[in-house]
Amino acid sequence: MTGRPDDPAPNPHATEAQVQAALADNKLAQVLYHDWEAETYDDKWSISYDERCIAYARGRFDAVAPNARLPYERALELGCGTGFFLLNLMQSGIAKSGSVTDLSPGMVRVATRNAEHLGLDVDGRVADAETIPYDDETFDLVVGHAVLHHIPDVELALKECLRVLKPGGRFVFAGEPTTIGNIYARRLGQVTWKVTTEVTKLPFLQGWRRPQEELDESSRAAALEAVVDLHTFDPAELEAMATRAGAVGVRAETEEFAAALWGWPVRTFEAAVPAEKLTWRYRLTMYRAWLGLSWLDENVIRRLVPRRFFYNAMLTGVKPGASGK
């Protein structure tokens, strides 16, 4: 349940020279940014491996592939991060065993460590999604969450997914930013960060201010984040891309409109203040608010607003061949 011994070591503290070099080298930027985030990523995004996130991950899968026959024998996650998507899907019964891959050694280390703590049958490799280091027809399922928008050649990565899938195997990607959704989410995040970091300079609010060195480090990471986020997507264009790659049964869905308008300022505020200020009661309240707005999106707003205006896109497709799951 560990990465390969010949994988490169994580580099969580990039030098200023490395950051400058990464501005002109996208894949170096991907590694440095995600190595920097690896050990704190779960806390930053309120990721857990309990019923809350198990239900979230399974909900995303079922929303785009509701008729899949489960469980899959072996699954692969591309751009695994800390393992959030695959590990929670496995806990929900989607797959029996899995492999996690990421361009970031730090993320692979955290993901395999999380899998070990959960007692899941998972191995990991440092890998590029455009050249997946597995043989043809190795996996029954390929998944990813918030990964396609980091990949320079998305269509090539989808072709690679189909290559390593067995005939009839399926890929499922979720958490991809739509073009319109990304505009309002980014703007809300930027405004919230600026207001929060300025207001907490006031003497009577300085207890809510993170140490300046932490804020500076976050700003350096944000500079790399602007480099590593390469794409936004129109749902119809995602479907066309997957079809050109060779998939059948292609389908894209979107989610989060009101929930995104609420969630982005909340997450940005939480990243800008000391974690100890955010009580359990506060976190539960924010989560319940997000659930309520997600219900509103699904049951009311979806009927009124075109899918391209929602923030998150999900995509599925099947490799031609035997009857797919």
Plain-language structure description:
This protein has 325 residues and is an alpha/beta fold. 47% of the residues lie in helices and 17% in strands. The chain is built from twelve helices and seven strands. It has helices at residues 16-22, 26-37, 41-44, 51-64, 84-91, 105-118, 154-164, 179-199, 212-228, 235-245, 258-272, 280-299; strands at 72-77, 95-102, 122-126, 139-145, 165-177, 248-255, 312-318. A seven-stranded mixed beta sheet has the order 3-2-1-4-5-7-6, sandwiched between helices. Helix 2 packs antiparallel against helix 9 (212-228), helix 7 crosses helix 10 and helix 11 (258-272) packs antiparallel against helix 12.
Anisotropy-based shape: globular
Strand order in the sheet with the most strands: 3-2-1-4-5-7-6
Question: Unreliable segments (pLDDT under 50, ≥5 consecutive)?
Answer: none
Provide a count of the helices. 12
Radius of gyration (Å): 19 Å
- Tell me the span between the first and last alpha carbons: 27 Å
Overall SS class: alpha/beta
Main sheet overview? 7 strands, mixed
Beta-strand content bin: 15-25%
Helix content: 40-55%
Q: Helix and strand string, N-terminal first?
A: HHHHEHEHEEHEHHHEHHE
Kindly state the number of beta strands.
7
Q: Estimate the mean pLDDT confidence.
A: 93
Concise description?
The chain is α/β, with parallel strands linked by helices. It contains 12 helices and 7 strands. Helices cover 47% and strands 17% of the residues.
Descriptive terms for the model:
7 strands, about 325 residues, 7-stranded mixed β-sheet, alpha/beta
